[in-house]
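Field notebook, page 244. I keep forgetting to write these up properly, so this time I am using the form the group agreed on. The chain and the ligand, 6-chloroguanine, are recorded exactly as supplied. Prediction of the bound pose follows.
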Amino acid sequence: MKFHVLTLFPEMIEQGMNTSITGRAMEKGLISLNAVNIRDFAGNKHMKVDDYPYGGGAGMVMQAEPVYAAYHSLEEQAGHKLRVVYLTPQGKTFHQKMAEELAQEEELVFLCGHYEGIDERVLEEVVTDFVSIGDYVLTGGELPAMVMMDAISRLVGGVLNNETSAQSESFQDSLLEYPQYSRPEIWRDKVVPPVLMSGHHANIEKWRREQSILRTAKWRPDLLEKAELTKKERELLKGEVGNV
Ligand code: 6GU
C-alpha cells in the first residue's frame, strides 16, 4: 500500500507514521509513506497558500492552485488518476468496512485541510471520497489521515505479526472484544477467570464468545442488530442484560 499525504505539516505525518506497527510496516516495505508539503507548490516567493474567504467571514481559506499542483505531481508520477480522500467533518463517517474497502487499493492520497477549509473548486476537481472520523471538530485533517492510515495498514497482509488478529478483532463480526488477562494470576486480590487457567480450549472459546456478546449488549447495544447470533446466544442475552 502506497500512502500519499498532501499537507502543510508533513513532519507531523512522518513522525506519527514512523512509530510502532506502522513504522515497522514501512521498514519491511509493506506500506510506504510520501508526505507532500503543499507549500512547496505555492508558486510565489512568499510561499503563501491561503487567502481571505470571498464573501467575508472568519479565518483563511487554502487556495485551489497549490493543492491542485501538489495532487497533479502525484498523478504525473503514477501515470493515472488516483483515489483522493479529503478529510473533513462534512464527510461520511469512517468505519471498519470503509477501511477494508480502501485497503484493497494499491495507492491512496489523503488531502489534509487547515484554516477554514480548502477552495471548493479544487475539491470538485480532485477529491473522490469525503471522509470524517467522527462528530467533533479538529484543527486539521492530519490526525484523521493518520487514524485512517493506521486502520488501513493493519489490514495489509504481513503488517500484524498475527494473521488472525486483523480479522477477529472488534467490529469484524459486529461484537466487541472479550477481556484479556496476563500474569500474575492474582493482582490486588483480583483473580484471573478460572476458565482461562483450565487449558480447556473449547470452554475458553465459549467463555470468550459469551463475554463479547455480553459486553456488546452493555456498551454498544446498537452493534447487536448487525451481529450474527445463534438462537441460544439471543436467549442468553434476554436473561443477562442488566447483570453484565
Ligand atoms: Cl476529517 N477533519 C477535521 N478538521 N475535523 C474532524 C474530522 C476531520 N473528523 C472529525 N472531526
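OBSERVATIONS:
- The beta strands are 2-7, 32-37, 50-51, 61-62, 84-93, 107-112, 129-132, 186-187, 190-191.
- The chain has a mean pLDDT of 94.
FOLLOW-UP: compare against the apo run.
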